[in-house]
UniProtKB/TrEMBL annotation:
Keyword Nucleotide-binding set for record: yes
Primary localization: cytoplasm
Keyword Membrane: no
Native organism: Ophiobolus disseminans
GO cellular component, one term: nucleus
Tree of life domain: Eukaryota
Keywords associated with the record: ATP-binding, Cytoplasm, Hydrolase, Kinase, Nucleotide-binding, Nucleus, Transferase
Pfam families, sorted: PRK
InterPro entries xrefs: P-loop_NTPase, PRK/URK
Domain (Phosphoribulokinase/uridine kinase): residue spans on this chain: 31-156
Name this protein carries in UniProt: P-loop containing nucleoside triphosphate hydrolase protein
Organism taxonomic ancestry: Eukaryota, Fungi, Dikarya, Ascomycota, Pezizomycotina
GO molecular function: ATP binding; hydrolase activity; kinase activity
Amino acid sequence: MPDVEANVQHALNILLPKIKQQHQQSSNPIILGISGLQGSGKSTWASKIVEILTSQYNLHTITISLDDLYKTHDDLIAQKEKDPNNKLYRTRGQPGTHDEQLAAHFFQELANYRGNAELKIPSFDKSQFNGEGDRAPKSSWPVITRKPDVVVFEGWCVGFQPLPASAVQDMHERAVAGKLAINTPAQHSLAHLLEVNDNLKRYCDAFMGPGHFDFFIHIDTDDLRNVYTWRLQQEHKMIEAKGSGMSDEQVRAFIDGYMPSYEVYLGGLREGLFREGGRMVRVELDMLRCVEKVVEL
């Protein structure tokens, strides 16, 4: 099994000198983004980063997940019913299923926060409505009363950047011709892929573009097929622990919902999120989720 703490420490060691320097020079919270493939362990990485920065470097660190910024259940249902033929929006997850105003408002509040009052962190309860989920009551949201030094913002599509419509069309045509790794964009119409792209552009403008991050860690792999293996392993462990879960076919269908965006947008993120280098680390995992290489971008 991979030593997650050692891997996290390795990646952090590359960024730490600049994180410390920025902390000394600015009173604003440092925003550290984490993007990771399904099953790659990004949530574990996020929690380990919080633990290490807080305990070893005395940097008060909190985390928020893109998942906690989903729309309410009613709004998610409305999103799904707007176009029943759009398979990308049958479940939550894609750009367009999150509350953009809530996200932008939270990060603006965070930028202005000086610890002089309570600040609530949005929360989403995935157990509601038989797993469809709903926003948790505001009374149950986590509360901070001290300005954080570092905020870890993690999510599966955090760091993805919208493409020109012509580039999305080209990716779709290549998938139809069988020229991509798995060719999942071919399972969807070009119009539906462009809808995701338009939603992603709004996300990046409002709260998720390069200008909204100070540093970034991307957990990746050299073979996207590994994502199916990782997620199946996770589900099997959950079934062992809880006695129920998705079938292998359901897991594959679940991953198929995310794979088109991986195939369309990962290439851009692999080239680097920032114009200037040294603020991003790309961690490449093998099939066993062991680190094959760590690259500074």
